[in-house]
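My current task is to audit a protein record that another person submitted. Thanks in advance; the entry in question is below:
***
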Amino acid sequence: MPRNLFLLGSTGSIGTTTLKVIRKNKKNFKIKLLSTNKNINKIYKQAIEFKVKKVVIFDKKKYLENISLFKKAKIKVFSSITDALKNNKNKVFLTINAISGIDGLEPSLQIISHTKNLAIANKESIICGWKFLNKKLKQNRTNFIPLDSEHFSIWKLLKGEKVENINAVYLTASGGPFLNKKIESVKNIKPQFALNHPNWKMGKKISIDSATMMNKIFEVIEAAKIFDLDIKKIKILIHPKSYIHSIIHFNNGLTKILAHETTMEIPITNVLYLNNEIFKHIDKNFEFKKLNDLNLSKPNINTFPLLNILNKKINNTFFEIILVSLNDELVKRYLENRISYISLHKLLIKLLKKPYFSKYYKSSPNNINEIKNMVSFVKSYLKSYFND
């Protein structure tokens, strides 16, 4: 029997990689739903190839413009997850949510009751809305699997272990394209160079976050929430080879390490074949030489000044939402060549300190609408700040 799946954000990097993995053994899977924001050509081709009968297009204009296109192909098209699953009676085995950024939060909340397992591949929605996600996951007895390579590896390493026995968790970071450079030497570097990650092929936003180390800041916060860990127990280590993804040191003196090639196909394959005792990822032989001279080191704060953010008190308040929203907007402006690389760092630190925002750091959202309102609040402020 093929496994029934929902794939949200199928036209993005993680979504495309997921379909690449499924394509190797199509008979094992049945995709019931795909979604995109506005990449119509790509999702149409995906739906035809994988014989998907339901598609969600979140962009209202694109949705209205393309209803007839999908109707001709006998594919039902919807503008929301809620509408698409209105008459859905049975839970699918797995949902992979590959929608990037905080936009992935609401679809996750809407789909939890329709799936036995939920794998999420974006940091921002977990950072901003984990308490709401966790509550709904428990209510619907839906299992959660983090799909980011670092958090997936922690999840794997904790199998059969107790969180209370953790002494420290180490997340590894490649250091990105500017590892051995002081920030002053790249202060005016153009986006095309910041996008040139040495090991991973990723989307533009996460590539910039990798260069600034913001992605690792997000991962520390994310790990603390997912695994209910004291954030002080989570450390960052530079590992240029990107072969080791996480290390856990336990109170009993044992240390576990998880390593795999720099491809998201491996965690995705493991999630797709969840609970299967026998399956094979088509891979090269184990490259033991990559474990020689691992060259692990602590990150240099002069190269990655944003790491100072982790010194702030992070405890499920509006701080995390404001941090994510400010970074989203500043990265967008950097990619558009509207601010410099150094300004991306300096403005983020400066804006986080503003009383306009800091007054919210002692309170937390009571519902998802308050999260959405805060995101809009930050966007509105920045439009005024930059005279957009």
